[in-house]
Write a structure and sequence with these properties.
The chain has 341 residues and is of the alpha/beta class. It has one domain: FAD/NAD(P)-binding domain (3-Layer(bba) Sandwich). Helices cover 32% and strands 28% of the residues. The strands form 3 sheets. Strands 1, 2, 8, 9, 10, 11, 17 and 18 form an 8-stranded mixed sheet that branches. Helix 1 runs parallel beside helix 7 and helix 7 packs antiparallel against helix 8. It binds flavin-adenine dinucleotide. Flavin-adenine dinucleotide binds next to helix 1, strand 12, strand 16 and helix 7. The site of flavin-adenine dinucleotide has 38 residues, from helix 1, strand 12, strand 16 and helix 7.
Length: 341
């Protein structure tokens, strides 16, 4: 049986950031990715300023940057402007390839694609019927994490997000649509990219069942006259249920750990941060993962806002209107961007 000091399952943002942080250390690291290509993932590819500060992405990797966002509440348009860009779009394949390139030539890191982990046991994982031993195991394998399942952690709160990817350059504005009757406390989005646009929405199935979300989304597309016939439909879970990240020598990062925001559905930043913090904990068992604690504080705030919006019931539309109007007041705009960023 081959043995690696650290086996990371999943080459998404979390797994690759974890590997990058373990680069050029004494640990021999293996990243296992089930797909034949690193990067592509069902995702709208929306980033905020904090992602960019963290990633230090070269500008050519950013599809579009925005300092102006269009909000719609029940069809009524509002504009949010800041004096600098605060929302960006990026293609997930490009992000993945950029992260992988950072690891090329690093001697202690090996990435294996087409390597689906089918079983996990104490001290080894199974890939294509072969056992691979590990000292530390990192579950960075997304919302349907096999590592999390093996730890016996059942997700209590998994959001579902759906989108159409339309191969068009016909959309320029980044837009968010709040419609309490269709999307409850959540929203629909239009996120333009260089070669396509992502148009989607998401919700927690416990509040808005997936079939209802789908039919409401279709109604909304019809109402806005958006023709999705040439597009690709995609749907995926977003695990928002955090129940711990460290279980002896096994760690969970990113969506596997349930770090994504249940309010916004955002999880790329959380994946990057937790991937790094898990690696630092492996390098030093006394390491205090301050950034994970900060993430969890923000997550609790998001949950409070979401709970409030859900409890607003029929008054939710009023709250959305009020929120959209407050975006015109610099103090509240700063607070709101701070809450998200
Ligand atoms: C429709 C939609 C839109 C979204 N839009 C946004 C957005 O605009 N902004 C944002 O920040 N977040 C968004 N998210 C959330 C975001 O995509 C995730 O939070 C993020 O990808 C989590 O990163 P991760 O590294 O934890 O997991 P992932 O990106 O899911 O990566 C996990 C990797 O593990 C691999 N894997 C899984 N199982 C195995 C196995 N058994 N063996 C080997 N490999 C395995 C997978 O192939 C994958 O490459 C969106 C999600 C959805 C569904």
């Amino acid at each position: 049986m081959v043995f690696f000091d650290v086996v990371i399952i999943g080459a998404g943002p979390a797994g690759l950031k974890c590997a990058q942080t373990l680069s050029n250390t004494k640990y021999r690291v293996l990243v296992l990715e089930k797909n034949s290509q690193v990067g592509p993932k069902v995702c709208a590819g929306g980033l905020t300023g904090k992602d960019l500060d963290y990633l230090k992405l070269p500008p050519e990797l950013i599809d579009f940057s925005y300092r102006k966002v269009k909000l719609h509440v029940n069809g009524l348009p509002f504009r949010v402007r800041d004096d600098k860009d605060f929302i960006y779009t990026i293609d997930r394949k490009n992000l993945g390839q950029w992260q992988v390139n950072k690891l090329s030539g690093v001697k202690n890191i090996k990435i294996k694609i087409g390597a689906k982990v089918s079983k996990i046991d104490k001290g080894f994982v199974v890939v294509n019927k072969r056992k691979i031993g590990y000292g530390f195991l990192v579950g960075a394998d997304g919302s349907a994490s096999i590592v999390r399942q093996c730890l016996g952690i059942k997700p209590k709160s998994t959001n579902v997000a759906i989108q159409y990817i339309l191969p068009t350059k016909g959309y320029q504005d980044l837009e968010l649509f709040f419609d309490s009757n269709l999307f409850s406390a959540w929203y629909a989005w239009i996120f333009p990219h260089r070669h396509y646009v992502s148009i989607g929405c998401g919700a927690n199935p416990a509040i808005l069942p997936a079939d209802k979300l789908n039919s409401n989304f279709k109604n909304w597309l019809d109402k806005r006259g958006i023709d999705v016939s040439g597009g690709k439909y995609e749907a995926f879970a977003i695990n928002c249920d955090y129940q711990g990240y460290r279980f002896g020598n096994v760690f969970l990062a990113g969506d596997a750990g349930g770090f994504a925001s249940e309010l916004t559905g955002e999880g790329i930043y959380q994946a990057l941060v937790t991937g790094e913090e898990v690696a630092k904990t492996i390098l030093n068992s006394n390491y205090q993962p301050r950034k994970i604690n900060d993430l969890l504080t923000t997550k609790r705030r998001h949950n409070k806002v979401l709970k409030f919006l859900i409890e607003c019931g029929k008054f939710r539309t009023m709250v959305f209107y009020l929120g959209a109007m407050l975006f015109g007041v610099p103090f509240f705009k700063k607070k709101a961007i701070g809450l998200l960023g």
